[in-house]
């Protein structure tokens, strides 16, 4: 087996062991709770025996006595053990565990699929089929690490979706029940009461008393807050998305990044606004059943479940990289809401400027994208699906012949399912499949791994901007020597790339005016 593959699997096993150790190490958990350390929100949950509630570690109430605390790795495990969510700290609204960002093993892939709503749409058998394991294996591994199986995890997610709809919309409860994924109104009522110790109507009344009445609502639009672990530097994150925005699909308008979304039950439009404590999120959905999926994809796009303290601490160990981290900590990796879309755009961007890549993508959108209606802005289309692009005439593409071949082969493989890019992707397998395609060199494969697959250790030693930054800092700038030096940054090399790119005076590194 290749040395890098062995190291990757070893790191995954070590990370999984560390995750389990965190919530079973009572002393460490107690210290985090007593310090109200928000870095551990979403990493573990505190169940309190005397009150029957569970909290996030940073809950503002007086910490319970240590002997009354029990620690669980997921909200679903707390609920399964009979605890209800704290009304003060709302532990079900914490950022997701960073474990699912930087791992590619079975449990991490399963958790990404659960967040993407696969269990609600396809059941546990569908989840297992996507992962290539039996339902029994999937359930056993999730129970061992998270204290809850896929059904319990999906139920906890449905409860959170229901709460959002109850508190932020005027939809009738029956519509909310089915939009959140519940099979019946009775199950919806029972679950909400069990998880929140309030009936759905009481939740809505309670929210109405605290809602900001100065903020006008728009019919059909949901206004949410997406939490994250501080610090978060929005410059390169939103700067990159805005500077590379494809006309008709994406835009920067009124201080927000807006784009169209291809969702299971119909198209949607999202507006994401950076803020000091949360990301503002406005969602217009064709079908409310897509709320959970839309939130999950927006969080993934902005890398909101990352642990910036852990990332930055590791990168600071390099004395040449440390000043960049100290200057603007908390950089995230801008990712995507649609993995096949990004792969297509990566090919269009080979060896051309950002402006040229946008022009090529805009032509594809106008010719093959699906029209959408956007009353609040200038969005016009969904980015075309691989199936739509597989039918295009290569001669219609204003590209060099070699790149036409690369693009048409890619979309055909994506449409046929020969290459799978998604939350369930095996990163090593996806890299190997992409490498086999004509015109796919290390840069294209790694940029897809970084931004589409979400591999936090993807690295671009041949990128011109990265090499220029490395040379200016005194880092090795030949690919082989640079890769050797960057081994000390693992498993966070994709974040190091963001810090290095930020040394360049380019629109991708700053918020639009």
Walk me through what this model shows.
The chain is α+β, with helices and mostly antiparallel strands and 513 residues long. The protein has helices at 3-24, 26-34, 75-80, 106-115, 118-131, 135-146, 150-168, 173-179, 185-196, 200-210, 234-243, 291-301, 308-315, 322-327, 339-348, 354-368, 386-390, 401-416, 427-435, 442-453, 464-473, 479-486, 493-501, and strands at residues 45-48, 53-55, 69-72, 84-85, 221-226, 250-253, 256-263, 266-273, 279-285, 370-371, 381-382. Mean pLDDT is 90; it is low at 1-21. Among the domains are: 3-100, DNA Methylphosphotriester Repair Domain, CATH 3.40.10.10; 106-210, Arc Repressor Mutant, subunit A (Orthogonal Bundle), CATH 1.10.10.60. Strands 5-9-8-7-6 form a five-stranded antiparallel β-sheet. A four-stranded mixed β-sheet has the order 3-1-2-4. The chain has a two-stranded antiparallel ribbon with strand order 10-11. A hairpin with a 4-residue loop joins strand 1 and strand 2.
Please tag this protein with its features:
four-stranded mixed beta sheet, DNA Methylphosphotriester Repair Domain, globular, alpha+beta, Arc Repressor Mutant, subunit A, five-stranded antiparallel beta sheet, 513 residues
